[in-house]
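Could you join me in thinking about how sequence relates to backbone shape in a protein? We need material for that, and I hope you will provide a protein of your own picking. Once you have written the record down, we can walk along the chain together:

…
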Amino acid sequence: MEFVLPCEYSVKEILPAIRALVAEKLVNEKNLSIYKAAELMGLTPAAVENYLKKRRGTKVKDLLKNDKEFMDFLESFSNKVLKKEDISSLSSYYCILCAEGKKVLNKNGYKLSHCIIESNLAGYNLSLKE
């Protein structure tokens, strides 16, 4: 049995997939340049290009992309990034997206444990709804 911390899988697989999906939305759907998307996401243009060219964040991206509820969350998050909302509040949304991503993966046969933040999310009124 392999011991993997909840956030370890998130950092290696879920968050890169989320960044790839956000990069796609900003560049392909919102028509931003790679440079502007990188600036808004707090990444380098090279990192955004790697996400767009499927060099990073590909392992679980399609599972997340095929889940309508998750993509609704991601759309709201992308809009917040586009509006340049406070970065400290946006960082909290990554935890929500990670938790929602884990739900999607668990529905698809992954066995991912919850982190302490996910256990406490129900007690907070954090929503990606506009």
About this structure: The chain has seven helices and no strands. The chain has one domain: 6-121. The longest helix spans residues 6-29. The helical segments are 6-29, 34-41, 45-52, 61-65, 68-82, 87-107, 116-121.
